[in-house]
Write a structure and sequence with these properties.
alpha/beta; Nucleotidyltransferase, domain 5; 5-stranded mixed sheet
C-alpha cells in the first residue's frame, strides 16, 4: 500500500553534506491516532553541526505509561510545553528547505507532514535520507537493526537514547559511519538521486 500523502518529499539515495537530522517522540505508532510529544532537529553544514532545535510538545491526551517507560517523558514534563500547532510551526521554520536525515525517517516525516497540514494547511515537502536503508546495505550481518543496536555495534554512545535530541546525535554518528562504507558509497553513486 502506497503513501497517500500528496506533495510529500521523496526518499533520496544521496549522501548530503548539508542537512538537518530530525527525530521525534510520539505517544504511539500511528499518526492518525497518536501525538507528537518531542521534536528535535540538528543542522549540519559541510558535515559540521552548526545549530539545533528542541522542544517538548504538550499532547491533547495523556502520555501512556509505556511511552514514559521508553522515553522518560512524563505528563508533568510536558505540562508547560507548547501545543503541537506552535511547536510544529517553529520546527518547520527551523529546518526550512533542508534535506532531512533520520533513522527510519519516514515514520518521523509522516507525523510531521500530518501535523503541519492539520494545524496550518501547509504541505511538508522536504526530501529525506533514511539512514536505516544504508545500514541494511552496509551491515547485512547484523540481525537487529534498531538505531541503538546499530550504534552499540559501531561502538557509538547510546546513553540517553529515546529522547529526540540524543537520538539525533546517535543517528548522525551512524550516518557518518555509513558515509565511509564502500557498499553505501557505491550504492548511492549508482542510484544517484533516485526517489
Amino acid at each position: 500500500m502506497g503513501d497517500s500523502r500528496v506533495n510529500k518529499g521523496h526518499s533520496r539515495l544521496i549522501l548530503p553534506k548539508d542537512y538537518c537530522v530530525v527525530d521525534i517522540e510520539t505517544t504511539g505508532l500511528s499518526p492518525s491516532d497518536c501525538e507528537v510529544i518531542e521534536l528535535s532537529a540538528v543542522r549540519y553544514r559541510q558535515l559540521k553541526k552548526i545549530d539545533s532545535f528542541h522542544t517538548l510538545v504538550k499532547p491533547e491526551k495523556g502520555i501512556p505509561a509505556l511511552i514514559t517507560n521508553i522515553t522518560g517523558i512524563t505528563n508533568e514534563m510536558v505540562e508547560d510545553a507548547p501545543p503541537i500547532s506552535d511547536a510544529i510551526l517553529d520546527f518547520s521554520k527551523f529546518i526550512g528547505e533542508d534535506i532531512l536525515v533520520g533513522y527510519n525517517v519516514n515514520f518521523d516525516v509522516n507525523f510531521i507532514y500530518d501535523a503541519l497540514l492539520e494545524c496550518h494547511g501547509v504541505y511538508f515537502r522536504n526530501d529525506f535520507v533514511d539512514v536505516l536503508r544504508y545500514v541494511r546495505k552496509a551491515l547485512p550481518e547484523l540481525e537487529c537493526k534498531t538505531q541503538t543496536k546499530v550504534a552499540s555495534y559501531l561502538k557509538l554512545p547510546v546513553k540517553g537514547a529515546h529522547r529526540a535530541d540524543v537520538d539525533c546525535e546517535i543517528c548522525n554518528g551512524i550516518y557518518m559511519r555509513m558515509r565511509r562504507r564502500k557498499a553505501v558509497t557505491e550504492w548511492t553513486k549508482g542510484e544517484g538521486e533516485k526517489k
